[in-house]
Amino acid sequence: MTNTQLELKDVAVNVVAGHEVKTLLSNINLKLDQGDFATVIGTNGAGKSTMFNAIAGDLEITHGTIHIAGQRVDRESPEKRARLIARVFQDPKMGTAPRMTVAENLALASHRGERLGLKSRALRAQMARFKAITALAPNGLDEALNKPTEELSGGQRQALSLLMATMRNPELLMLDEHTAALDPHTSQAVMELTQRIVAENHLTCLMVTHQMDDALNYGNRLIVVDAGHIVADYSGDEKQQLSRADLLQYFA
Amino acid sequence: MGVWISAISQGLLFGIMGIGLFLTFRILDFPDMTVEGTFPFGAAVAVTAIAHGVSPIIATILAALAGMVAGLITGLLATKGHMPLLLAGILVMTALYSVNLRIMGQSNLSLLGMKNLFTGKWMNSMPPYIGSVIFGFIVVTIVVALLMVFLNTRLGQGFIAAGDNRNMARSLGINPDHMQVLGLVVGNGLIGLSGGLVAQSDGYADVSMGVGVIVIGLAAIIIGEVLFGELTLSQRLIAVVLGSIVYRFVIVIVLDLGFSADDLKLVSAVVLALSIILPQLNDRFRLKRTLRKGVSSDD
After folding, report:
1. Which domains, and CATH codes, for chain B?
2. Main localisation, per the record (chain A) (predicted)?
3. Which residue among A97, A111, A120 places its CB closest to the CB of B168?
4. How far away is chain A from the Cα of B137, in angstroms, using its nearest Cα?
5. What digits encode the pLDDT tens for the residues A151-170?
6. What structural domains does chain A harbor?
């Protein structure tokens, strides 16, 4: 039996622009089961980011419901949803606190979604654990535990953001073009780390990407968004057999 | 000699205000104008309470609590009222001017002949100003120690993260608005405390004693940063206090040069401006020198 981790039912997002009501998303229905790794592609302005922001709570939905791990979240603030959702953003600067060290960032992330109290952060006691976690990253992050993250490279920062997002297994991992700002080599390394973490922890993951190859090579689902609708949802063998040419039709 | 020791005492008491401002200005990354109202608010509450027979210790605690209320109002205006923080601070600062006049019933109130924290037996048994320095040092040590402990708790780390990157904080479940209010409450509590202590040390509260205090607080922060460079966050709290003492020394020197007390606001502004500009000029100068050296060694 599979558990539904993410369920969007008849979700619509309308915004008022001047005197007009603009529909950004309409009639979005989507279900991700436990362990599903879905890649999301679409042209600029298709509604990928809007869908992401609606799930994360940055954007209020006009209609429909959103459930994560069986809990209805569409009336909750993004901070409240953090107990269920972990995110990695496109901009490497967005996911970490620049003046705090790598270890401090990790310590904070280990309490994602929890109520922060007056207990000591107990940084020293956790250093060995942080060292082991950051050793997973390909770019020497484990040697930089005491460095402020503003001194890290973009690739290191993004790997750190990913490790922070997955320190406590989230019910839903959301990756918003998280390799778009990286060079091809680093991007590949971060994608491989992503694949490994998602598989090892059996995470449910939604990844927006502009890289067609990544959309094809990673995950077991591929979702195409166009003009505020989900226009295709491939899974299993159907996804395996997809080619770039098949996807290009959606960008015509 | 006495004037230098007095400068240390004043530096310590104003240093508490500098630390309060540091929480919002450096950690949360915005200038809190409430300071200019909170400082005399703390002074007015403490002096009025003492004048009404309240114990100086309770009066000082009331000054801190008054500051916290002022910070809370600024925080709520900014977060719940969706007002720019600068404007929220200016509104509360302006309103507090009238509140302070109401509290004192006049524009200034003296503590002449009344017992306060700086007139006890123990204080009088010391050489002039030494007691104030010791007392200021004890209060500063307690404040810095408590803040160090707080900043190393999970909540304290969330507070720092919210100032560092709101977006990241939200994604970890930390509400940056709550942290902003927390910073304003704690910061203004310390500023109220500082106002209450300075008023007792000076022997009076004046409705206009807040004018320019934000400049004094910023000068303490920036002088501390310029003098001590790269420090940990906890060390930076101490640097603010030392910066505040150095600022007082500068004021003593300036007065020694023949400037009048009326010129002090102008001097404060110039000291702050120079603290910001001089290190930049120095950096440029060093850069040029390095470049010149580079050229000559190639030759």
Report:
1. 2-298 (1.10.3470)
2. membrane
3. A97
4. 26
5. 999 999 999 999 999 999 99
6. 34-60+72-251 (3.40.50.300)
